[in-house]
Design goal:
This protein is of the alpha+beta class. The protein is built from 4 helices and 3 strands, in the order αβααββα. The protein has a 3-stranded antiparallel sheet. A hairpin with a 2-residue loop joins strand 2 and strand 3 (60-65).
Length: 102
């Protein structure tokens, strides 16, 4: 396992900010798929120290926030949404969502 592979993989995933096929990621960082897969536990460890996680779904990999920090992320997301759409927009959205449940 090479720390260089881990650092390159994390950098590419961070930059793209979207899921990426593991084979494609390996190609981007100049490693073979097996080398990358062997390096993923170290990448997970490094990311967890920063409140992040490595997410693998269906052969694709991405960086996300740690599940144990979801309360903070939810709070920030709600504040961002309410700031971006304003009070009137938030009231309208609430009505639409309420009527959609009926």
């Amino acid at each position: 396992m090479s720390l260089n592979i881990v650092k390159r993989a994390i950098a590419v995933l961070f930059y793209l900010a979207e899921p990426l096929d593991i084979s494609k990621l390996a190609s981007h960082i100049g490693a073979d798929k097996e080398e990358l897969e062997n390096s993923l536990p170290e990448a997970r460890r490094i990311l967890e120290e920063c409140g992040l996680s490595l997410v693998e779904v269906g052969g694709e990999i991405s960086i996300g926030t740690s599940a144990d920090l979801s309360d903070i992320i939810d709070k920030v997301a709600k504040e961002t949404i309410s700031r971006e759409i304003g009070k009137a927009g938030l009231e309208t959205l609430s009505i639409v969502l309420y009527n959609g449940k009926a």
